[in-house]
Amino acid sequence: MKYIVKQTGQKGLGIYASQKIAAYEVIAKVDYAREVTPDQPLHEGESYDHQMYLPDGRVFLVAEPICYFNHSCGSNAFLYSADQQYYIISKHTIPADKEITIDYELSAVNGDTWECKCGSKNCRGLHTWDFFSLPKRIILESLPYLDPWFAQVHGNRIKHVLNQ
User: Fold this and answer.
1) Count of structural domains within the chain
2) SS in 3 state form for the chain?
3) Host domain of residue 103
4) Taking the model in full, what pTM does it have?
5) What percentage of residues in the chain have a pLDDT greater than 90?
């Protein structure tokens, strides 16, 4: 396995590279514990933060240990989907013992506001959980890491940003 789960301080548990991970290497496949529905809502002890929203509107609870990939405004990995299966892929070489993080805001729109605790030197502070509320520079830098379904569904909004 390319990663291990360790304590991260104020963020709780996190995922760390157990070995050097090459750029654009698949780190993990995202597995689901179960689907979350009105008839089967979250149970006691299950976290809202560990849910994954699929383009078709279904919501799944991400299984352990994958649910411990934390957010960072200076992330070193990203989510990518193919045929509704998600993968976590490295953006660049990640050294052993480095926390592996993703930017949660790259696949969100119209979400809640939350305070970031990532500790990155480029931390954006308060998030609105909306890709299109990010500064234009960050949107443009993030385009290569957008999930294909997100880019397709929100193509008109992306085009608008590109034409500004």
Assistant:
1) 1
2) CCEEEEECHHHCEEEEECCCECCCCEEEECCEEEEECCCCCCCCCCCHHHEEECCCCCEEEECCCHHHCEECCCCCEEEEEECCEEEEEECCCECCCCECEECHHHHCCCCCCEECCCCCCCCCCEECCCHHHCCHHHHHHHHHHCCHHHHHHCHHHHHHHHCC
3) 3-162
4) 0.91
5) 70
